[in-house]
Amino acid sequence: MDSLNPDSAHLASDSRNAIDLYLCPLFLDPEVCQGIRLEADSSPTTKAPVYIEGETGFVHETIRKATSFHPCEETVSYVYNQMVKQMANLDEFFGIHLTDCEQPQFIRYQPGDFFVRHQDGSTEQMEFDHLRVRRISIVVFLNAASHSADDGGYTGGSLNFYSSMDGPQTPLPLRSIAGETGLLIAFRADTVHEVLPVIQGERFTIVNWFR
User: Fold this and answer.
1) What is the pLDDT of residue 169?
2) For the segment 102-151, what is each residue's pLDDT rounded down to a tens digit?
3) For the CA atoms of the chain, what is the radius of gyration?
4) CA distance 79 to 75
5) Distance CA 19, CA 175 (A)
6) Which domains does the chain possess?
7) Are 63 and 115 in contact (CB under 8 A)?
8) Most buried by CB count within 10 Å: which residue of 39, 54, 146, 179?
9) Are the C-beta atoms of residues 181 and 144 closer than 8 Å to each other?
């Protein structure tokens, strides 16, 4: 597991494992994160979608089991504007000219929830235009992984990165990150990753994509 010190450098590259990760500790203040978590309890919810070519529905709980919550427009706009401020750093770090990002999505993982190994964007996803144009993925943790869920954190739910989609042929992740409150992680949208099942507590994140 990676544990990040908020005083560490904001940009980090894992060139040893051919995975470039942009890391920004305390992208959101802990107080802001707590406010969004509290807002989740009164926000409308839907089941988190997943897009599978050839399928008509967008809920596939054998692939992704999680809940999207929809906070007020003020919260969404604040998070969106903070993310846009990172665009120049992302341009420089990844060597990609980015133009804009989608609206952020707010995700709650409860015990047993997960997201299997997948890619957020790929030129092969011809059926879904919004997936094909995704270039950089963003994950922001609103609470921290912990040894106990009693402190408002969660156990399980690690964010794992892989070199390919080859399942049993690559059983071990190249990198595994446990969340820290306010931490932003960015990576190329075609990077293979997964969210392991949450064991205890609730895992709150924001996800988004730059184009």
Assistant:
1) 59
2) 999 999 999 999 999 999 886 555 545 556 689 999 999 999 999 877 77
3) 16
4) 6
5) 8
6) 15-210 (2.60.120.620)
7) yes
8) 179
9) yes
Residue 209 CA to residue 211 CA, distance in Å, equals: 7
Question: How does pLDDT run across 186-210, given as a tens digit for each residue?
Answer: 999 999 999 999 999 999 999 999 9
Structure tokens at 171: 């059983």
pLDDT, position 123: 52
Q: Taking the CB of residue 155, how many other CB atoms lie within 10 A of it?
A: 17
* Burial (CB count within 10 angstroms: exposed 0-12, middle 13-18, buried 19+), residue 95: exposed
What residue type is assigned to position 85 of the chain? K
pLDDT at 179: 93
Q: Is the pLDDT of residue 65 over 60?
A: yes
